[in-house]
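Predict the 3D structure for this chain.
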Amino acid sequence: MFLTLLLVVALARALRSERLVDDLLAGGAAGAIIATKETFPLAIGSVLAGMILSGTEARALFRPKRIAIAMAAALFVAGAFYSHGFTDPAGLLSPVQAVRIWGARAEAGEGHRKPWWYFLMLLAREEAPIVAAAIAGTVAAARRRQGLGIWAAVWGATTLVAYSAFRTRRRGWS
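Done. Predicted structure below.
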């Protein structure tokens, strides 16, 4: 979670500046997420979806030079982890293998299959005060048209939908 939040903070900073360090930090955070979380496509994808769907002025980040810098940093960090400090080049294929293994587990179920509403029920039962605060924060951010608050809300909702979609009982929304 720390690395995902670091990615959000770095992207938010990069939206406000043209500083190279923010692009490198965003890329480094993304690379660390790739290296430590087999569900990295969902984590990174939900952050980016939140940024784009919230109406955040993300166009500033989507310039070839900034994307190349962030991607180079991400590949360097992930590559350093997966190749044991660049001493095992075969380890560079590990992220692909991790996604394939995770995808197969998600498809097969292996005890992880839940109804689509499972995470909503779990959140309501176990984290009711946090859910109430998130709803209140979302409403306040929407009323104030606060970009980062809306981004966080869309990021959270996108994450919930993504993980719920991969945990359903059957293919599709059962």
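The longest helix spans residues 147-166.
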